[in-house]
C-alpha cells in the first residue's frame, strides 16, 4: 500500500508538470472513457488558469524534459506510438531533445577507473571534457596511440533512477487496464515492458558495442556506409570507447555542398542503406535522426549512437517487402493476402474487404508524381486502416515505421525531389527476387529438408512422450480427475487473494484520481 502511495505522488507531480505546460490541450477527450475524459477536461481547465495562455504554445515535450531522464525516454518512445497517443501528441514528442547538463569530469574519471580497473591516465594519453550529454550517458574525446577516440560514460546512479520511474510507469499501466478494460487493446503494460527492455539494453554499453560490431559485419561490403570501430579493450558495461568520427553533420546542407558532396547521391544513400539493413539483415539503426548521421571526407555515410536498434524476423521482412512492392504495382489483393498470411489481420475478416480498404489508400496516389508520394505516410495510413480490421499492435513494425519517417525526412532534406520508389526499387526488388523467386524457393526447400531431418531424429523421443501422455489420459478417463487436499487448499487461497487484490485495486484507482485531481488543483 505504501508503494502505491509513492507511485501516486510521482504521478501527481507529473500531472502538475503537464498542467503547467498546457499539455492537456493536445489531448482530445471525446473518444475517451468517462473517467479519463473527466480527468483530461479538469487538466485542460486548470491548465488554462495556471498554464500557458495560448493553447498553441502547449508543450508536452517541455513537460517531459522537466520531469527528467526517464520521462524523456518515455516521451521519445511514445513518439513512435501514434496508435496510442495520436498524431498531435506524437508530433510534439518527436521534438523532444535528449540533452541534459553534463556531470563533472571528476565523476566521469572515477566511473572509467571503476569500469576498466585502471586510472584514466593509464587508459588514455589525453582525456578531454564532455562534448555531448544525454539522459543516459555523456561523451568525452580522448587520445591514444590508435588516434582520437570517443568515450561514452553512463551517468552515475542512472540505473536506480530509471528502475524507480519504470516501476511507477508499470503501476500506472496496470491501473489503467484495471479501470478501463477497453484500454487493454492498446496494451499499455506491454508498452512499458518494451520500454523497460529497451532502456535496460541501452544502459549496458556492452550491448551497444555488440550492436555496432554486428552492423559492421553486416555492412562490410556495403558501398558508402560504415560505422565507428569498437575499442573492446577500453569498453565495459558502463564505459564504451569508439573510433572518433570526423565528419560533417548530415543536417548541415550548406557545409556538405561547400565540401563538394553530391546531395542527390547522399539522399539516395540514406534511404537505400536503411532499406538494405532492414530487409537484408533484419537489423537496423532505429534512431537515424540527423544528429546521429555524418558524412566523412570520402563521402561515406557514418552512423553513430546505436543504443536503440530494431530487429525484423523473416516474416516481418517479407511483410515489408511485399507491402511496398504491392503498392508499387497496385496489387491490393496480394497486399491484403500478405497481411492475412503473416497473421496480422484475424481470419474473421474478409481478404476482399481488406483489399478494398487498401485500395482507398493506394488509388489517391495514382495522380501524384513519384516524388510526391511518401512511403512513411503510406505506412502510417496503412496502420490506421488495420485498426478497423483488429490488427494488433506490432511493436517491431511501429519502430520500423517511426524510423522510416525519420529516414525519409533526412533523405528529402538532402534532395527535395527524391523519388522514393525509384530509389528503393533496386533494394526491394533484389530482396523479392532473392527470397520469393527461384533462388528463394531453393533456399526454402533446403531449410524444409533440414527441419524434416531434425524432426526424424527427434521422433523416438516424441513417440515416448506421446505414449506417456496417452496413458495418463486413459487413466483419467477410467478413474476420474482427483485433487488432493493440499491442491484444494492452494486453489482456495489463490481465489481469496484474487478477491482481495480486486478490492485493493478499486481503492487504489479511486485514490489515484483523487490525488491527481488534488495536485492539479493546488
Automatic annotation (TrEMBL):
GO MF terms, alphabetically ordered: ATP binding; kinase activity
Protein name: 2-polyprenylphenol 6-hydroxylase
Organism field: Microbaculum marinisediminis
GO biological process: ubiquinone biosynthetic process
Leader peptide range in chain numbering: none
PANTHER family: CHAPERONE-ACTIVITY OF BC1 COMPLEX CABC1 -RELATED, PROTEIN ACTIVITY OF BC1 COMPLEX KINASE 7, CHLOROPLASTIC
Any Pfam family the entry gives: ABC1
CDD domains linked: UbiB
Keyword Transmembrane in record: yes
Family: Belongs to the protein kinase superfamily. ADCK protein kinase family.
Amino acid at each position: 500500500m505504501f508503494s502505491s502511495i509513492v507511485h501516486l505522488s510521482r504521478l501527481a507531480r507529473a500531472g502538475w508538470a503537464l498542467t503547467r505546460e498546457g499539455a492537456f490541450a493536445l489531448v482530445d477527450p471525446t473518444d475517451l472513457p468517462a473517467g479519463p475524459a473527466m480527468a483530461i477536461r479538469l487538466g485542460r481547465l486548470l491548465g488554462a488558469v495556471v498554464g500557458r495562455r495560448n493553447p498553441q504554445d502547449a508543450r508536452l515535450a517541455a513537460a517531459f524534459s522537466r520531469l527528467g531522464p526517464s520521462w524523456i525516454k518515455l516521451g521519445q518512445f511514445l513518439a513512435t506510438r501514434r496508435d496510442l497517443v495520436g498524431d498531435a501528441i506524437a508530433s510534439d514528442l518527436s521534438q523532444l531533445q535528449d540533452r541534459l547538463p553534463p556531470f563533472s569530469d571528476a565523476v566521469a574519471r572515477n566511473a572509467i577507473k571503476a569500469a576498466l580497473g585502471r586510472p584514466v591516465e593509464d587508459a588514455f594519453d589525453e582525456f578531454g571534457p564532455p562534448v555531448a550529454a544525454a539522459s543516459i550517458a555523456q561523451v568525452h574525446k580522448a587520445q591514444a596511440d590508435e588516434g582520437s577516440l570517443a568515450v561514452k560514460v553512463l551517468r552515475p546512479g542512472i540505473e536506480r533512477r530509471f528502475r524507480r520511474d519504470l516501476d511507477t510507469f508499470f503501476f500506472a499501466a496496470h491501473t489503467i487496464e484495471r479501470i478501463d478494460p477497453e484500454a487493454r487493446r492498446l496494451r499499455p503494460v506491454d508498452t512499458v515492458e518494451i520500454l523497460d527492455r529497451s532502456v535496460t539494453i541501452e544502459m549496458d554499453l556492452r550491448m551497444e558495442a555488440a550492436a555496432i560490431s554486428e552492423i559492421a559485419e553486416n555492412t562490410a561490403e556495403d558501398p558508402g556506409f560504415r560505422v565507428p570501430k569498437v575499442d573492446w579493450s577500453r569498453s565495459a558495461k558502463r564505459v564504451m570507447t569508439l573510433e572518433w568520427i570526423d565528419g560533417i553533420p548530415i543536417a548541415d546542407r550548406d557545409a556538405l555542398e561547400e565540401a563538394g558532396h553530391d546531395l542527390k547521391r547522399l539522399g539516395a544513400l540514406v534511404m537505400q542503406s536503411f532499406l538494405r539493413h532492414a530487409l537484408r539483415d533484419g537489423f537496423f539503426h532505429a534512431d537515424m535522426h540527423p544528429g546521429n548521421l555524418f558524412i566523412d571526407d570520402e563521402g561515406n555515410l557514418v552512423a553513430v549512437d546505436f543504443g536503440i536498434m530494431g530487429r525484423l524476423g523473416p516474416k516481418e521482412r517479407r511483410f515489408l517487402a511485399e507491402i511496398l512492392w504491392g503498392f508499387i504495382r497496385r496489387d491490393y489483393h496480394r497486399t491484403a493476402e500478405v497481411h492475412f498470411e503473416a497473421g496480422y489481420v484475424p481470419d474473421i475478416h474478409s481478404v476482399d474487404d481488406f483489399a478494398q480498404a487498401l485500395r482507398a489508400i493506394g488509388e489517391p496516389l495514382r495522380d501524384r508524381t513519384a516524388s510526391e508520394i511518401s512511403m512513411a505516410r503510406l505506412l502510417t495510413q496503412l496502420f490506421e486502416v488495420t485498426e478497423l480490421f483488429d490488427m494488433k499492435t506490432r511493436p517491431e513494425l511501429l519502430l520500423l515505421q517511426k524510423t522510416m519517417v525519420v529516414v525519409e525526412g533526412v533523405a528529402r532534406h538532402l534532395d527535395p525531389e527524391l523519388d522514393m520508389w525509384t530509389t528503393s526499387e533496386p533494394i526491394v526488388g533484389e530482396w523479392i527476387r532473392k527470397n520469393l523467386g527461384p533462388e528463394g524457393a531453393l533456399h526454402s526447400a533446403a531449410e524444409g529438408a533440414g527441419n524434416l531431418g531434425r524432426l526424424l531424429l527427434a521422433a523416438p523421443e516424441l513417440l515416448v512422450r506421446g505414449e506417456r501422455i496417452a496413458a495418463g489420459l486413459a487413466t483419467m478417463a477410467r478413474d476420474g480427475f482427483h485433487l488432493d487436499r493440499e491442491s484444494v487448499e492452494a486453489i482456495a487461497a489463490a481465489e481469496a487473494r484474487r478477491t482481495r487484490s480486486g478490492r485493493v485495486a478499486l481503492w487504489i484507482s479511486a485514490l489515484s484520481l483523487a490525488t491527481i485531481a488534488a495536485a492539479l488543483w493546488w
